[in-house]
Amino acid sequence: MPLHSKQPLQRSLLDRLIDDDPTGVRDSKAMTNFGLRELRDSVRRDLEALLNSRSSWLEIPDHYEELQASLVNYGLPDFSSMQTSNLEGRQRLCQIIEEAILRFEPRFVEVSVTALDEEMPLDRILKIRINAYLHADPLPEEVSFDSELEPVHLGMLVKEVHG
């Protein structure tokens, strides 16, 4: 049974800590009402933040297992010199993105990242599709996001795919 758009959900810790009206005595109605649409928007925002963050250059020794999933390693490695014009480079970048999402986004049960075929071969923007199952009760909710890697600043824009 998939989630219903009206089903109440709990906001993430970050969303609960953000206060848009710090002078107000009560939480706004928007803070207490939280449905599937708001959950998807929150996940999209956090996913975009993850993909636009860069992890440390430092190599962490394997015996420091907890550091691998800590804030020290949050984000993607610097891929500015990575060759993404060929299939092998695009597949490697997709693998790196998938590993980062699985490591730092616990709301996803399953993740698959693929590079989309280029419709215009001269277009320098790399398009990536992220398919995942959002951890939800009683059943995981399927979500898809399209991401575009802007080649100059290496920024990633994430949009939810509808339908």
From TrEMBL:
It comes from the Bacteria. Pfam families: GPW_gp25 (PF04965). Residues 38-138 form the IraD/Gp25-like domain. This is Type VI secretion system baseplate subunit TssE. The gene is tssE.
